[in-house]
Specification:
The protein is 37% helix and 22% strand. By secondary structure, it is α/β, with parallel strands linked by helices. The chain has a single domain, classed as Nucleotidyltransferase, domain 5. Strand 1 and strand 2 form a beta hairpin. The protein is globular, with a radius of gyration of 17 Å. The relative contact order is 0.17.
Amino acid sequence: MIRHRQPPSQTWKTFLANHTADLVSVDFFTVPTATFRIMYVFVILHHERREIVHFNATYHPTAEWTAQQIVEAFPFETAPRYLLRDRDSIYGERFRKRVKSLGIEEVLTAPRSPWQSPYVERLIGSIRRECLNHVIIFNERHLRRQLRSYSTYYKFAS
């Protein structure tokens, strides 16, 4: 018998192109402070307009804290259809339940493949090069102020 080949699934590039209007990316990056403490910044980027939807910083991120950031970013039925994230352990059970309750479908990147989340990775690189490499961060409030300033700049520059 002749086996009929099924059409191949869409490629990663095709998926990103087909769903840019319904897709946000999330990621964490670290920032050292003047006292050598490590702060974690959580950023959410909308793919369609490369717009920073939300960011926040903390010394101790948890799945519960991260889930709360998703709720704060998408109030009142404004949640996207897809959320692109890596396989970091910070996205625990509480985070996954909260995302599911908002009606968002999670899309996971392959392990150790930052190229599958290019827009948010480029944004993080831009934040580091254009903002954080030029200042010494003192504390959480100072970091948030710097990120808010960069977010305003980024909105008008892009």
